[in-house]
């Protein structure tokens, strides 16, 4: 998978050089290219924003640098990319979105800042790729970079070969629509707190049943909305 990220804070993504995704990049599983939007400006101040038509507080990102950046990236692409813009007004990103993204050949992420990007950019981007406005959740960030970092990690780790043991992906929260069961390791007693005896029993059937019950109990207590989704699927 190829990932292009366009941002006015390219250094923000230096962290993608380390950890799992760093290894995936060096092994060629992931081809991540970070671009500074200001490289597509032509004035002395490398201007990317201007005042909003119609008035109002804050600034809006100018369309011209975005148009030139997307043209160059899409032109250089082997296949029609999916172009993802984080937005508070987007569809919420879920594990299903992460799974969908992990199967794509080429994703271009456009990180907005200020009060957002001139709306015409999303329309123009539709001539170059499949445009998706995606929200990380119902809270307000200052820009798209944190959302893109989360999406790249959530999707990148699902790419076959990125995570060492693929079995570990199956029993995670949200993978089966439920929250994950609690985990324990040595010592069996820690500060007078014991590991649940069933986990020390060696009875794999009993362990599996206990873990499933824990998933359902936790989901009911913390995320009843997920249970109704499950019941809907039943
Ligand atoms: N889930 C989620 C995504 C964002 C997000 C994404 C991109 C941008 C670009 C500028 N801002 C700041 C902004 C705040 C509020 C209203 C308009 C713009 C962004 C916020 N916030 N929350």
TrEMBL record:
**Every tRNA methyltransferase TRMD/TRM10-type domain range:** 1-228
Q: Tell me, what's a Pfam family for it?
A: tRNA_m1G_MT
Q: Name one GO biological process term.
A: methylation
Query: Which positions are annotated as binding S-adenosyl-L-methionine?
Result: 112, 136-141
Protein family per UniProt:
Belongs to the RNA methyltransferase TrmD family.
What does this protein's UniProt record list under function?
Specifically methylates guanosine-37 in various tRNAs.
The identity of this protein, by name, is: tRNA (guanine-N(1)-)-methyltransferase
Keyword annotations for this protein? Cytoplasm, Methyltransferase, S-adenosyl-L-methionine, Transferase, tRNA processing
Domain of life here?
A: Bacteria
Q: EC no.?
A: 2.1.1.228
Indicate the quaternary assembly: Homodimer.
On whether Cytoplasm is a keyword of this UniProt record, the answer is: yes
The record's catalysed reaction(s) read: guanosine(37) in tRNA + S-adenosyl-L-methionine = N(1)-methylguanosine(37) in tRNA + S-adenosyl-L-homocysteine + H(+)
User: Which CDD domains does this entry report, sorted A to Z?
Assistant: TrmD-like (cd18080)
Where does this protein reside within or beyond the cell?
A: Cytoplasm
Per the UniProt record, the source organism is: Microbacterium horticulturae
Gene name for this UniProt entry: trmD
> Is the keyword Methyltransferase in the record?
yes
Q: Name one GO molecular function term.
A: tRNA (guanine(37)-N1)-methyltransferase activity
């Amino acid at each position: 998978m190829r990932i292009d990220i366009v941002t006015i804070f390219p250094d923000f993504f230096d962290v993608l050089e380390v950890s799992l995704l760093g290894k995936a990049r060096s092994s060629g599983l992931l081809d991540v290219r970070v671009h500074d939007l200001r490289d597509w400006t032509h004035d002395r101040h490398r201007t990317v924003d201007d005042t909003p038509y119609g008035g109002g507080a804050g600034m809006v990102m100018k369309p011209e640098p975005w148009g030139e950046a997307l043209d160059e990236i899409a032109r250089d692409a082997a296949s029609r990319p999916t172009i993802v813009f984080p937005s508070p007004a987007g569809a919420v990103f879920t594990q299903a979105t992460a799974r969908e993204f992990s199967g794509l050949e080429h994703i271009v992420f456009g990180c907005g800042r200020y009060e957002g990007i001139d709306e015409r950019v999303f329309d123009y981007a539709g001539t170059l790729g499949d445009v998706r406005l995606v929200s990380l959740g119902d809270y307000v960030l200052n820009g798209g970079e944190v959302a893109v970092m989360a999406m790249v990690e959530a999707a990148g780790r699902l790419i076959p070969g990125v995570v060492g043991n693929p079995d570990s992906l199956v029993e995670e929260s949200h993978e089966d629509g439920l929250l994950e069961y609690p985990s324990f390791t040595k010592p069996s007693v820690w500060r007078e707190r014991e590991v649940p005896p069933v986990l020390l029993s060696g009875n794999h059937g009993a362990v599996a049943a206990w873990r499933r019950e824990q998933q359902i109990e936790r989901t009911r207590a913390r995320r009843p909305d997920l249970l109704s989704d499950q019941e809907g699927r039943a």
